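Progress report, Aim 2. The chain analyzed during this reporting quarter is listed below.
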Amino acid sequence: MKVLFLDVDGVLNKANTKEKTATGCSFVEDIFVRRLKNIVDQTGCEIVLSSDWRYDAHTELNPELDELEDKLSEYGLALYDFTPVINNHRGKEIQSWLDAHTDVGSFVILDDRDDMEPNMERLVRTLFSHGLTEENKRETIKMLNGVNESE
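Predicted structure tokens for the chain:
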């Protein structure tokens, strides 16, 4: 199994994203969702949400998650799972999820944060000012498909 650990803020939106959720948070931009769709199409990966957007999933406390899932479904995308919440350390949360899912052959962390220990080498870091760029997309696809730069 190939897995993409997905952050939302700084990946599917950026600092000056204008569209808002029903509660006023910055929503996602279609261009970034299209790039995500291209990653999934070219790699066959599953999307595991590691973003803060997973907190209080599917409760009245987090209507943004429903909006996100609706937008992803417009592009034929779905969330496979969520990482657990462990002391707000994303790298440990991702590692805990990996420890419980031994069938993962390849994974990438797509995030604008850098607290990804012990898996820093699997991070494709975005910038909050830019969101998911074409370069980030290409790097993610190469990593998930096991393509080395030297090939």
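The CA atoms of residues 114 and 120 lie 8 Å apart. The two ends are 22 Å apart (CA to CA). These observations will guide the mutagenesis work planned for the next reporting period.
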